[in-house]
Amino acid sequence: MVEMAMVFSLLIVLLVGTVTAAIAFGQNNSIENSAREASRFAATLPVTSEATWLHAVRDVARAAAHGDLDASVPGQYICVALVDGSNNMRLTDIGGSESQSGAACYDDGRPDGEIRVQIVTEREATIEAVFFSTDVTLSAQAAARFERD
Amino acid sequence: MGRHTSERGASLILVALSLFVLFGTAAIAVDIGALWLDRSADQKVTDSAAAAGALEVIASGGQVACELALAYVAVNTKEITTLDDSGCASAFSSTCTPGQALTLVSGRYTITVTHPVSDAHDLMTSGIVGATSQPLDSDDGAACERVAVEMRSSRESMFAQLLGFDQGVTTVHTVARATTGDEDPPINLLVLDRTACEAIKVRGGGGIIVDARIDVDEAGNPVGLLPGFIAADSDGSAGCTSVGVISVEGSTALLRADGPDCPEQSGSHPIGSFTAYEGCGRIQVYAPGTPGCAKTVNLPACSPGSGGSNPPKPAPTALAQPFTREKADHRYNCWSDYTLPPAGTSWAALPLTGDQSIGGCDTGEPDHIYDLIKDVGPVTNGKPTNRGLWKYWNADLGRPCTVTGSAITVTKNVVVDCPNFTVKSRVQITGDVVFNGNVTVTSSTGDLRINHTLASPGWAFFRGGTLTKDAQAKLAFNYTSVYMSRTSRVAMSGGSGSLTWIAPDSDEFDDLALWSDSPLDHNWAGQAALNMEGVFFMPLAKAIYTGSSGQNQTNAQWIADKLEAAGGGQLVVRPAADRGISFGGPASTLIR
To answer: Most CB atoms within 10 A, among B178, B244, B270, B290?
Structure first.
């Protein structure tokens, strides 16, 4: 019986670990999908005003994650940018607090003058193993050519 | 004793079983989860890569499309920093050749770029798991407009190895198609001449008003107004020292574009539930001298009548680059095919592009106009037998070349084998029509109708002759696309008659009301009843509109070499939504 208890506790650790890892995979999938949807949407969205454009794309990114990028999610980060090298515009949303700037989300190595959309989505996921737990940062990026210049 | 042994065995079996189940679960949860993650990440990569490639494929060809697609694969894949795109140059020739593809291996990824993508290609089946095959439709475009990116990724299993699966592999692909984006705003009136003065000329009591247009969202709901847009490609280099590319002469002549409210507005009128403001549209000229239009400083762009008394409204601004006829050719025809002489004909009157450049046509692009010219051609071609069953008006049907008296109704494809076809009573032809010579509709009883329907559009072809409509006569082309050869022209007289000219709304000549390869002047005139809808494309001709009185509104997009308006009436141009050629820049659509 003692051996059984020991073996089963190990099995349960493994089971819980597996389940939480799978949940993390699901969340990673969600934010990848969110980056894809948002970049696709942004690529064809005309710019009427900077703030309107950036917010519209951010909203699509959040909605496409179906709750996995809500402001209450630990480590939530969304970055939306329209970049051509000299006239960039960017919106970051960290845990629901926004800020706008003239930077890019990241350096994608594409030449100046090529107008493109950058999206970064991030969140934290927790993998539990009963006796300990670890937080991992999940991150997805997408870049797409802007089709409305 | 027995109890002791059985318990031991049970424990062992239980543990073994639960281990098996657990590893199975772990394999499913972790390994398949990871594979799905790969799939969704790869789809993101192929979407943006195929779209990036398709965006440039028409303008720059397969090699550039391939390089861009690979660049966007690298930008979007975490594990790839750069991809060697040197293979694009040899894999893709400068023309769109069937079977071109490039495959690269980088780490655990295999990437394939394909262009063109033929209709029968495996890539044209949906790669989505569980999706059934997707039939081709008109949105899928031509093979040469398509760029496909396929990505195969493999991943070592963590748990599933124990069950015998060493590796998980997933393959996704995206096919993107090059399209034309919506320009902002749509062009209503475009003059293509590249050097001329007076490319747009308004004189006497004549006037051209380009009205605002209702903008609709994707669901078709009206959301506001788009400004009317007049553009002139001329650079004014033909010596425009006294008159400009845009010329308004006389104190009552008028050139105006209307739009949403602006500070310079000079009046307003309702359109639907919106208000259009006069002079709030857009007038753009490629020639230097803009913005503004005060005679002494605005040449060669614009001359606003004597002493600057009657400027166009709004003042013209600079057009960054000429639009050219390119978009029209891309939609209906491509110059590359004009260079082929039609087999077995003496068709000398091939269309000319004059000084207007047409770039980027590829073999896969539609050449509907040229196909029609090949089939119909000159008078010596007789009946265009490739295009259905035909009857000669005179030789087969026994109808006269001058029609008077009782009405004639014919429901057939007809070649009007008359050097001069004169209509003085009602003639109604339901079918496609080829006119061998001049067509004159005259007297108050003259009434020529070429009838097609919305569901079944058709065409009429002028092999060489003038289409004349006298002041009181009636003329109608219903859902009919008219082609005019290099020796044909339109000569309308305005008055109490009527003109109905409505372009097809489907098929190869969708939205095309007139394609004229003629360099001769085309005369249009005000009518008691005028209904024109679609694109009137006269790239080599001067279009002259002579008003009678009052206003004549057309739902047309006017594209001509030059445009002149004179006489007492005003031409109001208000194109219907989606019934014109889009002059927007390149865009792409994901189709698979």
So the answer is: B244
Q: How far is A8 from chain B (nearest CA, A)?
A: 8
- Shortest Cα–Cα distance, A108 to chain B (Å): 6
* Residue A45 amino acid letter: L
Neighbours of B83 (CB within 10 A): 20
Domain ranges of chain B: 2-180, 193-323, 333-585
**pTM of this structure:** 0.66
Quick one: three-class SS letters along B54-66? Answer: HHHHHHHHHHHHH
**Of B526, B432, B427, residue with least CA distance to B481:** B432
Rounded alpha-carbon distances, angstroms, from residue B588 to A63, B140, B184: 24, 11, 17
Give mean pLDDT, residues B509-536.
Answer: 90
Give the integer Cα–Cα distance in Å for B312 and B290: 12
Residue among B3, B48, B158, B159 with most chain A CBs within 10 A, to mutate: B48
pLDDT digits (tens, 9 = 90+) for B197-243: 999 999 887 889 999 888 777 677 788 888 889 999 998 888 888 88
Q: Where are the domains of chain A?
A: 2-145
CA distance B109 to B58: 28
Closest CA to A66 of A24, A20, A97, A34: A34
Contact check, Cβ <8 Å, A21/B44? no
A44-53, B266-275, B427-436: which has the minimum mean pLDDT?
A: A44-53
Spell out which residues of chain A touch residue B19, defining contact as CB-CB under 8 Å.
11
The H-or-E segment that residue A61 falls in is helix A50-64
CA B338, CA B352: separation in Å to the nearest integer?
Answer: 9
Q: In the numeric block, which tokens belong to residue B454? A: 């919305």
Residue B552 pLDDT more than 90? no
Q: Do A25 and B33 touch (CB under 8 A)?
A: yes
- Best of A25, A138, A139 to disrupt the B interface by mutation (most B CBs within 10 Å)? A25
Q: Give the dihedral sign, CA B445/B487/B382/B418.
A: positive
Q: State how far the Cα of B270 lies from the Cα of A48, in Å rounded to an integer.
A: 25
| Range B548-573 average pLDDT | 84
Give the whole-angstrom CA distance, residue B171 versus residue B35. 10
Angle at B565 between CA B559 and CA B569, to 5 degrees: 120
Per-residue pLDDT of chain A (149 residues; tens, 9 = 90+): 777 788 788 888 888 888 888 899 899 999 999 999 999 889 888 777 788 899 999 999 999 999 999 999 999 999 999 998 778 899 999 999 999 998 999 998 888 878 899 999 999 999 988 888 899 999 999 999 888 65
- What is the tens place of the pLDDT at every residue in B85-113? 999 999 998 778 888 999 999 999 999 99
Residue B205 backbone phi and psi in degrees, to 5:
-90, 15
- Candidates B15, B26, B586; nearest CB to A18: B26
CB-CB contact of A22 with B35 (8 Å):
no
Q: Is A71 on the interface with B (CB under 8 A)?
A: no
CB contact under 8 A, B19 and A109: no
How many cross-chain Cβ pairs, A to B, lie less than 8 Å apart?
Answer: 98
* Structure tokens belonging to residue B269: 């009128």
Q: Which distant-in-sequence residues (6+ apart) come within 8 Å of B198 by Cβ? A: B243, B244, B245, B247, B562, B564
Dump pLDDT digits (tens) for B7-44. Answer: 656 777 887 887 788 777 777 777 888 888 888 899 99
ipTM of predicted assembly, 2 dp: 0.86
pLDDT band at B462 (very low <50, low <70, confident <90, very high): very high
From its phi and psi, is residue B308 left (phi > 0), alpha (psi between -120 and 50) or beta?
Answer: left
Tokens of B505: 């709304």
**Closest Cα in chain B to A149:** B585
